[in-house]
Design goal:
Largest sheet: 10 strands, mixed
Order of helices and strands: HHEHEHEHHEHEHEHEHEEHHEH
CATH architecture of the largest domain: 3-Layer(aba) Sandwich
Radius of gyration: 22 Å
CATH superfamily of the largest domain: Bordetella uptake gene, domain 1
Strand content: 15-25%
Number of domains: 2
Shape: globular
Structural class: alpha/beta
Distance between the termini: 71 Å
Protein backbone atom coordinates (compact mmCIF):
# COMPACT_ATOMS: atom_id res chain seq x y z
CA UNK A 1 0.00 0.00 0.00
CA UNK A 2 2.82 2.37 0.81
CA UNK A 3 4.46 1.78 -2.57
CA UNK A 4 1.17 2.34 -4.39
CA UNK A 5 0.54 5.54 -2.47
CA UNK A 6 3.96 6.84 -3.46
CA UNK A 7 3.22 6.10 -7.10
CA UNK A 8 -0.08 7.96 -6.84
CA UNK A 9 1.58 10.94 -5.19
CA UNK A 10 4.28 11.03 -7.86
CA UNK A 11 1.68 10.76 -10.63
CA UNK A 12 -0.40 13.54 -9.17
CA UNK A 13 2.70 15.67 -8.74
CA UNK A 14 3.69 15.15 -12.35
CA UNK A 15 0.17 15.95 -13.55
CA UNK A 16 0.16 19.09 -11.45
CA UNK A 17 3.46 20.16 -12.93
CA UNK A 18 2.11 19.68 -16.46
CA UNK A 19 -1.07 21.59 -15.71
CA UNK A 20 0.94 24.37 -14.14
CA UNK A 21 3.31 24.68 -17.10
CA UNK A 22 3.00 28.29 -18.29
CA UNK A 23 3.71 27.40 -21.91
CA UNK A 24 1.02 24.73 -21.98
CA UNK A 25 -1.49 26.98 -20.28
CA UNK A 26 -0.79 29.72 -22.83
CA UNK A 27 -1.13 27.22 -25.66
CA UNK A 28 -4.54 26.08 -24.44
CA UNK A 29 -6.18 29.49 -24.44
CA UNK A 30 -6.11 32.52 -26.75
CA UNK A 31 -3.31 35.00 -26.25
CA UNK A 32 -4.16 38.62 -25.63
CA UNK A 33 -2.65 39.80 -28.91
CA UNK A 34 -0.79 38.65 -32.00
CA UNK A 35 1.47 40.66 -34.29
CA UNK A 36 2.36 39.34 -37.76
CA UNK A 37 5.53 40.93 -39.10
CA UNK A 38 5.76 41.48 -42.85
CA UNK A 39 8.94 42.66 -44.55
CA UNK A 40 7.13 44.43 -47.38
CA UNK A 41 4.88 47.51 -47.65
CA UNK A 42 1.07 47.57 -47.54
CA UNK A 43 -0.67 46.55 -50.73
CA UNK A 44 1.74 43.81 -51.81
CA UNK A 45 0.93 40.10 -51.86
CA UNK A 46 2.71 39.33 -48.57
CA UNK A 47 0.78 42.11 -46.85
CA UNK A 48 -2.59 40.99 -48.22
CA UNK A 49 -1.99 37.34 -47.31
CA UNK A 50 -1.02 38.39 -43.78
CA UNK A 51 -4.13 40.50 -43.31
CA UNK A 52 -6.44 37.70 -44.38
CA UNK A 53 -4.69 35.35 -41.97
CA UNK A 54 -4.84 37.89 -39.14
CA UNK A 55 -8.61 38.06 -39.53
CA UNK A 56 -8.90 34.29 -39.19
CA UNK A 57 -6.44 33.93 -36.30
CA UNK A 58 -8.44 36.27 -34.09
CA UNK A 59 -9.95 35.22 -31.77
CA UNK A 60 -9.01 31.55 -32.25
CA UNK A 61 -5.30 32.04 -31.52
CA UNK A 62 -5.27 35.55 -30.06
CA UNK A 63 -8.04 37.93 -29.02
CA UNK A 64 -6.67 40.53 -31.41
CA UNK A 65 -4.30 40.27 -34.37
CA UNK A 66 -2.63 42.93 -36.49
CA UNK A 67 -0.09 43.16 -39.30
CA UNK A 68 3.11 45.10 -38.66
CA UNK A 69 4.81 46.14 -41.92
CA UNK A 70 8.59 46.47 -41.69
CA UNK A 71 9.58 47.02 -45.34
CA UNK A 72 13.15 47.20 -46.54
CA UNK A 73 16.27 45.13 -47.24
CA UNK A 74 14.22 42.58 -49.22
CA UNK A 75 12.39 41.39 -46.12
CA UNK A 76 15.40 41.18 -43.81
CA UNK A 77 14.33 44.06 -41.55
CA UNK A 78 11.21 42.15 -40.52
CA UNK A 79 13.27 39.02 -39.86
CA UNK A 80 15.61 40.98 -37.60
CA UNK A 81 12.53 42.28 -35.76
CA UNK A 82 11.29 38.72 -35.25
CA UNK A 83 14.70 37.61 -34.06
CA UNK A 84 14.66 40.22 -31.29
CA UNK A 85 11.03 39.56 -30.27
CA UNK A 86 10.17 37.68 -27.08
CA UNK A 87 9.54 33.96 -27.77
CA UNK A 88 6.08 34.07 -26.23
CA UNK A 89 3.89 33.24 -29.22
CA UNK A 90 2.67 36.80 -29.65
CA UNK A 91 4.87 37.59 -32.66
CA UNK A 92 4.94 35.71 -35.95
CA UNK A 93 6.59 36.48 -39.27
CA UNK A 94 5.16 35.88 -42.72
CA UNK A 95 7.94 35.79 -45.31
CA UNK A 96 8.61 34.38 -48.79
CA UNK A 97 10.71 31.27 -49.22
CA UNK A 98 13.73 33.11 -50.59
CA UNK A 99 14.56 34.77 -47.26
CA UNK A 100 15.14 31.41 -45.59
CA UNK A 101 16.27 29.23 -48.50
CA UNK A 102 18.58 31.23 -50.80
CA UNK A 103 19.60 34.42 -49.00
CA UNK A 104 22.65 32.64 -47.58
CA UNK A 105 23.87 32.31 -51.18
CA UNK A 106 22.71 35.77 -52.28
CA UNK A 107 24.21 37.86 -49.47
CA UNK A 108 27.77 37.76 -48.19
CA UNK A 109 26.56 38.23 -44.64
CA UNK A 110 23.18 37.77 -43.01
CA UNK A 111 22.24 39.18 -39.63
CA UNK A 112 20.24 36.02 -38.93
CA UNK A 113 20.65 32.28 -39.26
CA UNK A 114 17.52 30.84 -40.91
CA UNK A 115 17.81 27.52 -39.08
CA UNK A 116 18.79 28.86 -35.66
CA UNK A 117 16.95 32.17 -35.27
CA UNK A 118 13.58 31.26 -36.81
CA UNK A 119 11.22 28.52 -35.66
CA UNK A 120 9.06 27.14 -38.54
CA UNK A 121 5.33 27.16 -37.86
CA UNK A 122 3.48 26.49 -41.11
CA UNK A 123 3.21 27.22 -44.79
CA UNK A 124 0.50 29.69 -45.78
CA UNK A 125 0.38 29.69 -49.59
CA UNK A 126 2.22 28.64 -52.74
CA UNK A 127 2.52 30.60 -55.98
CA UNK A 128 4.55 31.08 -59.15
CA UNK A 129 6.23 34.17 -60.54
CA UNK A 130 5.51 35.96 -63.76
CA UNK A 131 7.14 38.51 -66.06
CA UNK A 132 4.79 41.29 -67.11
CA UNK A 133 5.26 44.47 -69.12
CA UNK A 134 3.43 47.76 -68.93
CA UNK A 135 2.56 50.64 -71.28
CA UNK A 136 6.22 51.55 -71.83
CA UNK A 137 6.67 48.38 -73.89
CA UNK A 138 5.01 48.34 -77.35
CA UNK A 139 1.86 46.23 -77.68
CA UNK A 140 3.43 43.95 -80.29
CA UNK A 141 5.86 42.60 -77.65
CA UNK A 142 4.08 39.44 -76.50
CA UNK A 143 6.82 36.83 -75.97
CA UNK A 144 10.14 36.53 -74.16
CA UNK A 145 12.05 36.57 -77.44
CA UNK A 146 10.30 39.75 -78.51
CA UNK A 147 10.98 41.34 -75.13
CA UNK A 148 14.64 40.42 -75.45
CA UNK A 149 14.80 42.02 -78.90
CA UNK A 150 13.07 45.15 -77.61
CA UNK A 151 15.51 45.33 -74.68
CA UNK A 152 18.49 45.12 -77.05
CA UNK A 153 17.03 47.92 -79.17
CA UNK A 154 16.16 50.03 -76.10
CA UNK A 155 18.85 49.33 -73.48
CA UNK A 156 18.13 52.54 -71.62
CA UNK A 157 14.49 51.53 -71.10
CA UNK A 158 14.88 47.81 -70.45
CA UNK A 159 14.23 47.89 -66.71
CA UNK A 160 12.51 45.14 -64.73
CA UNK A 161 11.34 45.77 -61.18
CA UNK A 162 11.30 43.24 -58.36
CA UNK A 163 10.14 43.32 -54.71
CA UNK A 164 13.62 43.57 -53.21
CA UNK A 165 17.31 43.01 -53.72
CA UNK A 166 18.09 39.34 -53.33
CA UNK A 167 14.48 38.20 -53.68
CA UNK A 168 13.64 35.31 -55.99
CA UNK A 169 12.20 37.71 -58.61
CA UNK A 170 15.45 39.70 -58.48
CA UNK A 171 17.52 36.56 -59.05
CA UNK A 172 15.15 35.30 -61.77
CA UNK A 173 15.50 38.60 -63.63
CA UNK A 174 19.29 38.17 -63.66
CA UNK A 175 18.88 34.63 -64.98
CA UNK A 176 16.48 35.87 -67.68
CA UNK A 177 18.83 38.63 -68.83
CA UNK A 178 21.63 36.09 -69.22
CA UNK A 179 19.41 33.56 -71.00
CA UNK A 180 18.14 36.17 -73.50
CA UNK A 181 21.56 37.83 -73.75
CA UNK A 182 19.72 41.12 -73.30
CA UNK A 183 20.57 44.25 -71.25
CA UNK A 184 17.63 43.86 -68.85
CA UNK A 185 18.30 45.82 -65.67
CA UNK A 186 16.96 44.37 -62.40
CA UNK A 187 15.52 47.22 -60.32
CA UNK A 188 14.86 46.35 -56.65
CA UNK A 189 11.96 48.00 -54.82
CA UNK A 190 10.75 47.85 -51.24
CA UNK A 191 7.93 45.51 -52.22
CA UNK A 192 5.74 44.84 -55.24
CA UNK A 193 3.18 47.61 -54.74
CA UNK A 194 5.53 50.57 -55.40
CA UNK A 195 6.99 48.75 -58.41
CA UNK A 196 3.51 48.26 -59.85
CA UNK A 197 2.82 51.96 -59.36
CA UNK A 198 5.94 52.87 -61.34
CA UNK A 199 4.95 50.60 -64.21
CA UNK A 200 1.59 52.34 -64.40
CA UNK A 201 3.37 55.70 -64.32
CA UNK A 202 5.62 54.75 -67.26
CA UNK A 203 8.70 54.83 -65.04
CA UNK A 204 9.40 51.11 -65.35
CA UNK A 205 9.12 48.76 -68.33
CA UNK A 206 8.52 45.38 -66.72
CA UNK A 207 8.04 43.49 -63.48
CA UNK A 208 8.95 40.08 -62.08
CA UNK A 209 6.46 39.31 -59.29
CA UNK A 210 4.07 36.59 -58.11
CA UNK A 211 1.80 36.17 -61.12
CA UNK A 212 -1.34 36.94 -59.14
CA UNK A 213 -0.03 40.47 -58.53
CA UNK A 214 -0.85 41.31 -62.14
CA UNK A 215 -4.49 40.18 -62.16
CA UNK A 216 -6.05 43.63 -61.51
CA UNK A 217 -3.97 45.10 -64.35
CA UNK A 218 -4.28 42.37 -66.98
CA UNK A 219 -8.06 42.31 -66.88
CA UNK A 220 -8.22 45.73 -68.55
CA UNK A 221 -5.04 45.22 -70.61
CA UNK A 222 -2.94 47.75 -68.72
CA UNK A 223 -0.26 45.06 -68.36
CA UNK A 224 0.65 41.94 -70.34
CA UNK A 225 2.10 38.78 -68.82
CA UNK A 226 4.82 37.33 -71.07
CA UNK A 227 5.75 34.19 -69.11
CA UNK A 228 5.16 32.37 -65.83
CA UNK A 229 7.60 30.26 -63.82
CA UNK A 230 5.67 27.10 -63.01
CA UNK A 231 6.15 23.62 -64.44
CA UNK A 232 2.73 24.05 -66.01
CA UNK A 233 0.93 27.11 -67.32
CA UNK A 234 -0.71 29.31 -64.74
CA UNK A 235 -4.48 28.83 -64.44
CA UNK A 236 -4.76 32.61 -64.44
CA UNK A 237 -2.99 32.96 -67.79
CA UNK A 238 -3.64 29.70 -69.67
CA UNK A 239 -2.70 31.29 -73.00
CA UNK A 240 0.72 32.43 -71.74
CA UNK A 241 3.60 30.00 -72.25
CA UNK A 242 5.93 29.29 -69.33
CA UNK A 243 9.55 30.40 -69.28
CA UNK A 244 10.58 26.81 -70.00
CA UNK A 245 8.20 26.53 -72.95
CA UNK A 246 9.82 29.66 -74.38
CA UNK A 247 13.31 28.26 -74.08
CA UNK A 248 14.39 29.63 -70.69
CA UNK A 249 14.58 26.25 -68.96
CA UNK A 250 16.57 27.68 -66.04
CA UNK A 251 13.39 29.31 -64.73
CA UNK A 252 11.09 26.61 -63.42
CA UNK A 253 10.21 27.57 -59.88
CA UNK A 254 7.33 27.97 -57.48
CA UNK A 255 7.61 29.85 -54.21
CA UNK A 256 5.71 30.03 -50.97
CA UNK A 257 4.90 32.17 -47.98
CA UNK A 258 5.65 30.66 -44.59
CA UNK A 259 5.00 31.63 -40.98
CA UNK A 260 7.73 31.61 -38.36
CA UNK A 261 8.10 32.31 -34.65
CA UNK A 262 11.21 33.49 -32.80
CA UNK A 263 13.65 30.74 -31.89
CA UNK A 264 13.00 29.52 -28.37
CA UNK A 265 9.22 29.78 -28.60
CA UNK A 266 7.76 26.86 -26.58
CA UNK A 267 6.89 23.84 -28.69
CA UNK A 268 3.36 23.84 -27.29
CA UNK A 269 2.75 27.38 -28.54
CA UNK A 270 4.19 26.62 -31.97
CA UNK A 271 2.01 23.54 -32.21
CA UNK A 272 -1.07 25.51 -31.23
CA UNK A 273 -0.29 28.22 -33.79
CA UNK A 274 0.27 25.61 -36.50
CA UNK A 275 -3.07 23.93 -35.74
CA UNK A 276 -5.03 27.19 -35.83
CA UNK A 277 -3.29 28.28 -39.04
CA UNK A 278 -4.11 24.94 -40.69
CA UNK A 279 -7.81 25.42 -39.86
CA UNK A 280 -7.72 28.97 -41.19
CA UNK A 281 -5.97 27.88 -44.40
CA UNK A 282 -8.64 25.22 -44.95
CA UNK A 283 -11.50 27.75 -44.82
CA UNK A 284 -13.44 28.74 -47.92
CA UNK A 285 -12.88 32.41 -47.11
CA UNK A 286 -9.11 31.98 -47.30
CA UNK A 287 -9.36 29.83 -50.45
CA UNK A 288 -11.42 32.52 -52.21
CA UNK A 289 -9.23 35.38 -51.00
CA UNK A 290 -5.98 33.66 -52.00
CA UNK A 291 -7.40 32.67 -55.40
CA UNK A 292 -7.91 36.36 -56.12
CA UNK A 293 -4.18 36.80 -55.46
CA UNK A 294 -3.18 33.94 -57.73
CA UNK A 295 -2.16 31.77 -54.78
CA UNK A 296 -2.97 28.30 -53.53
CA UNK A 297 -3.56 28.05 -49.77
CA UNK A 298 -1.42 25.36 -48.18
CA UNK A 299 -0.51 24.53 -44.59
CA UNK A 300 1.92 21.99 -43.16
CA UNK A 301 3.53 21.04 -39.87
CA UNK A 302 6.57 22.77 -38.34
CA UNK A 303 8.68 19.67 -39.07
CA UNK A 304 7.52 19.55 -42.68
CA UNK A 305 8.30 23.23 -43.21
CA UNK A 306 11.78 22.77 -41.71
CA UNK A 307 12.45 19.85 -44.08
CA UNK A 308 11.18 21.84 -47.07
CA UNK A 309 13.58 24.68 -46.27
CA UNK A 310 16.54 22.30 -46.09
CA UNK A 311 15.61 20.66 -49.41
CA UNK A 312 15.16 23.93 -51.29
CA UNK A 313 18.33 25.47 -49.88
CA UNK A 314 20.31 22.43 -51.01
CA UNK A 315 18.70 22.57 -54.46
CA UNK A 316 18.99 26.28 -55.20
CA UNK A 317 22.40 27.01 -53.70
CA UNK A 318 24.34 25.22 -56.47
CA UNK A 319 22.07 26.69 -59.17
CA UNK A 320 22.73 30.24 -57.97
CA UNK A 321 26.46 29.68 -57.74
CA UNK A 322 26.58 28.07 -61.21
CA UNK A 323 25.28 31.27 -62.83
CA UNK A 324 28.31 33.21 -61.68
CA UNK A 325 26.11 35.37 -59.47
CA UNK A 326 28.24 37.45 -57.11
CA UNK A 327 26.84 37.65 -53.58
CA UNK A 328 25.53 41.04 -52.52
CA UNK A 329 26.91 43.05 -49.64
Amino acid sequence: MTIKRRHVVRALGAAGAVLASPSLLRAQQPLESLKILVGFPPGGSADVVSRHLAEKLAPAYARSALVDNRPGAAGRIAIDALKSSPPDGRTLLLTPASTVTVYADIYRQLSYNPTKDLAPVSLAATFVHGLAVGPMVPAEVKTLAQFGDWAKANPGKASCGNPGEGSFPHFLTLVLAKALNAPIQAVPYRGGAPALADVMANQLAALMLPDGSFLPYTKDNRMRVLATSGEKRSPFYPDVATFAEQGVKEIVVSEWFGLFAPSGTPTALIGRASEVIAKAIASKEIADAFANLGMVPKANSPAELAALIQTEAATWGPIIRSTGFKPLE
